[in-house]
Design brief:
With about 325 residues, the protein is of the alpha/beta class. About 40% of the residues lie in helices and about 15% in strands. It contains eleven helices and eleven strands. It has helices spanning about 20-35, 45-50, 85-95, 110-120, 145-165, 180-190, 205-215, 235-245, 265-285, 305-310, 315-325, and strands spanning about 10-15, 40, 55, 100-105, 125-130, 170-175, 195, 220-225, 250-255, 290-295, 300-305. Strand 10 (about 290-295) and strand 11 form a beta hairpin. Helix 1 (about 20-35) packs parallel to helix 9, helix 5 packs across helix 6 and helix 6 packs parallel to helix 11 (about 315-325). Bound molecules: 6-O-phosphono-beta-D-fructofuranose. 6-O-phosphono-beta-D-fructofuranose (F6P) binds near residues 107, 131, 132, 175 and 177. The site of 6-O-phosphono-beta-D-fructofuranose has 10 residues, from loops. Belongs to the phosphofructokinase type A (PFKA) family. ATP-dependent PFK group I subfamily. Prokaryotic clade 'B1' sub-subfamily. Its cofactor is Mg(2+). It catalyses: beta-D-fructose 6-phosphate + ATP = beta-D-fructose 1,6-bisphosphate + ADP + H(+). Its EC number is 2.7.1.11.
């Protein structure tokens, strides 16, 4: 598309926060200043766009945010933005501030919002993949995924200590909504006895057999990683089913939950977020609209938002195979 002249960019974070969002905002704002643009922060995602929580950003707003978890612009899931009336209000507020382009940092719901907005009002918008779930196509890794995996693995290491001391079987539930990316990495990285993900069926009988075989091999403690969102239920439900078949096992359940979303971003996420922040501003200046910037094989790639959110990004078959080989 022929690039429009852009003077003021609004940046927002939306949906579940992810470590590295602050680093991404900082990079967007710094890149904007580098190209002599005015930068605006839209607080609380689309909700803030509707309620006019929009402020001009200065250098001081982005000082010492790169290393902080969460998002200083705050985040929200907005039901009102899903309505045409809500989007009209949001558009009117952007007009009021003279904002002529948007950078939206978030997961698939957030990027869908950016796409709709571009379709309806023609506002140049570019998305950045910000979610711990890693479930967006068009990028090898989403911002926050690496940190969330590190956090999960560090927590599981601690669970391993107590599991070993007591010869216990632990079911550890990790996040990912309906994708098993965090689970697979956590499973490989923590030597789990098994990893259950929504994308693959694992009959309870097979898990029972695996646990029995490990007992025979004198493996005293076992950790089973369960991704949330699986059809067979969460860690607690699976633990109940196993207890019925292996009543002598001392079983415990830990749900890691939101701690996976917090914390200072890893070096990988800081660098990814920084590269993508610059790519977002440069993409907008080059007329790349309605796309998501991602990194594939260490190169910046712009993928139409519709493709990034719709194409099912699959857990790597090889990763799944490796997890299986290493857990038997
Ligand atoms: O999308 C990120 C995520 O943390 C998912 O892994 C999880 O299913 C969901 O958000 C939890 O959302 P909330 O914080 O709204 O409960």
């Amino acid at each position: 598309m022929e690039p429009k002249t852009i003077k003021r960019i609004g940046v927002l974070t939306s949906g579940g926060d992810a470590p590295g969002m602050n680093a991404a905002i900082r990079a967007v704002v710094r890149a904007g200043f580098y190209y002599n643009l005015e930068m605006y922060g839209i607080y609380r995602g689309y909700e803030g766009m509707i309620n006019d929580e929009i402020k001009k950003l200065e250098t001081k707003n982005i000082a010492h945010v790169l290393e902080r978890g969460g998002t200083f612009l705050k985040s929200a899931r907005s039901a009102e933005f899903r309505t045409p009336e809500g989007r009209q209000k949001a558009y009117d507020n952007l007009q009021k501030h003279g904002i002529d382009a948007l950078v939206v940092i978030g997961g698939d719901g957030s990027l869908t919002g950016a796409h709709l907005f571009f379709q309806e009002f023609g506002i140049p918008a570019i998305g950045l993949p910000g979610t711990i779930d890693n479930d967006l196509s068009g990028t090898d890794s989403t911002i926050g995924f690496d940190t969330a995996c590190n956090t999960a693995i560090q927590a599981i290491d601690k669970i391993r200590d107590t599991a070993t001391s007591h010869d216990r079987l632990f079911f550890v539930e990790v996040m990912g909504r309906d994708a098993g990316f965090i689970a697979i990495n956590a499973g490989i990285g923590s030597a789990a006895a098994a990893t259950l993900i929504p994308e693959k069926k694992m009959p309870i009988e097979r898990l029972v057999e695996r646990l029995k075989a490990r007992k025979k091999a004198m493996k005293q403690s076992n950790i089973v990683i369960v991704a949330e969102g699986g059809k067979s239920g969460g860690a607690a439900e699976i633990a109940d089913k196993i207890k019925k078949q292996l009543p002598s096992y001392d079983i415990k359940v830990t749900i890691l939950g939101h701690l996976q979303r917090g914390g200072s971003p890893s070096s990988f996420d800081r660098v990814l977020a920084s590269k993508l922040g610059v790519a977002a501003v440069e993409g907008l200046m080059q007329g790349k609209y309605d796309v998501m910037a991602g990194v594939i094989n260490n190169k910046i790639v712009y993928t139409p938002i519709t493709k990034a959110i719709v194409d099912d990004k699959e857990v790597d078959e090889d990763d799944f195979r490796i997890a299986k080989i290493l857990s038997t």
